Amino acid sequence: MILEATNDALRLDANFVDYTLVAIYFVFVIGIGLAARRQVSTSLDFFLSGRSLPAWVTGLAFISANLGAVEIMGMSANGAQIGMATMHYYWIGAIPAMLFLGVVMMPFYYGSKVRSVPEFMRRRFGTGAHLVNALSFALAQLLIAGVNLYLLATIVNVLLGWPLWISLIAAAAVVLTYTALGGLSAAIYNEVLQFFVIVAALLPLTIVGLHRVGGIDGLVDKVNNGPVDGMLSSWPGQNLTGFESPTASVIGIVLGLGFVLSFGYWTTNFVEVQRAMASNSMSAARRAPIIGSFPKMFIPFIIIIPGIIASVLAPEILALNEGKGDGSVQYNDALLILIRDLLPNGMLGVAIAGLMAAFMAGMAANISAFNTVFSYDLWQQYVKKDRPDGYYTRVGRIATIAATVVAIFTALLASGYSNLMDYLQTLFGFFNAPLFATFILGMFWKRMTATAGWAGLSSGTIAAIAVAVLSQDALGPLSIGAIDLSGQGASFVAAGAAFVVDIVVSVIVTLFTRPRVESELKGLVYSLTPKADRTDPNESSLPWYQRPVLLAGISLTMVVILNITFH
């Protein structure tokens, strides 16, 4: 549990040089927060950076916000446990949806001038669906922020040997400081910095690890002779889904992960969309997720590959794969073990700073999205309307403090999962999958009614929870094991159930309720929004490398090649 003493087996032999590098990084982090505070004069500045940032900044922040604790530790854990099938989270479960967001959906978010995804839901479906979405999103951010905070505290615990509860408070204080000071701008500029720090930490680790195992050929030989079969094959991905049938596994990956979970996360999750909405033009907002797709497709080579290397180099991980683990380490520790065993002092300091950067990026993204939705969509809409603009900025800062405190307690939940990707995908099945179903149906079907919006969203969420409860382990001790589903496969099925139930209920309810007047849906429904309102008027004059559709085509071609090459 989270209050246990430090695990001495993972203690890193850091020296003065390493501590100095980490300290310098923190000086920059707090400095960015102080600098960003001077740019905050309105609530729009605090919550959306005044919609003033260039595409390359919001594009890198878009990726860095997702490159948090769960991705770094969870994906490396999956790499150590199941191998190359983890690549599907990127090449199937991210890139296509990111491109769809940039090409199709960002014009609606940015063009309608909404301040959040739940606000778009309110304009399309009214207060019923809006309230369900805003409350579920806020809850999800508090839970996921707890995951990021727990892993950030783990790093402090490993580095300094502090008890985890002290590490939690210390780590939370740093994130709280710069997020409360500078709002979204502080979070975004720190995310850009953190992206480069993360790469500087993980790229050398990957290179050193490959050298230690004898290069790519040496890694292939060692993995093929290891205890886990099929670790170097990405398809049909049975190691990932847990399905015995290859056909069922492929269907689960393509539909469960690649469509429902992926599109639900990347196109409606305000944590990501908020970064693109901070862009300085519609074209820049469309390019943000597309620009982010290019580094996104290569990130697994410095996250998943180290996990696979750990499975053959680290005795503790090898023991786990052989079923001989003694409980002292988990798969989530794979990257820490590799850092401990491979990196010399100096590089160790960069690696520690990189991990802390990742965890702070993830948590700050959750907190900044939470404070926007809480302030605009809950407090302003349902509690205190028509107050001066500065009032809502103060509410946002208070919400930031409160969310950070709550995250300390939700970190307790995260500590109970040996593989945090299972926990995360379960949450996404609850919150993102039904939201995507409601959103996409409402955007392309003008007949869909407001009542159908909240009824479908609520029923889809309940369906996902029901599958998770009936599964073997999707909710840990809360799962009763009535159906033979476990791990990632249970998450995929839960998400699929949420999507199907949401669609079915929405269609049935729509047929028995009255639709809105079409004139009210301009800018909210695809067929009722003129093309001029969905495009940047200056886009035709932009150079080719700034045209969203062309960039998306290049990115899609590249990711198809990667899927074929590493099948």
TrEMBL record:
Superkingdom assignment: Bacteria
Xref: InterPro entries: Na/Glc_symporter_sf (IPR038377), Na/solute_symporter (IPR001734), Na/solute_symporter_CS (IPR018212)
Pfam family, one: SSF
Protein name from the UniProt record: Na+/galactose cotransporter
Record key words, sorted: Membrane, Transmembrane, Transmembrane helix
Assigned protein family: Belongs to the sodium:solute symporter (SSF) (TC 2.A.21) family.
PROSITE patterns: NA_SOLUT_SYMP_1, NA_SOLUT_SYMP_3
Membrane topology: Multi-pass membrane protein
Transmembrane helix among keywords: yes
Organism: Cellulomonas rhizosphaerae
Record-linked CDD domains: SLC5sbd_u2
Gene Ontology terms, MF aspect: D-glucose:sodium symporter activity
Residues that span the membrane, as ranges: 16-36, 56-77, 89-110, 131-156, 162-181, 193-213, 248-267, 288-314, 348-374, 395-417, 423-445, 452-470, 490-512, 549-566
Compartments (UniProt record): Membrane
GO CC field: plasma membrane
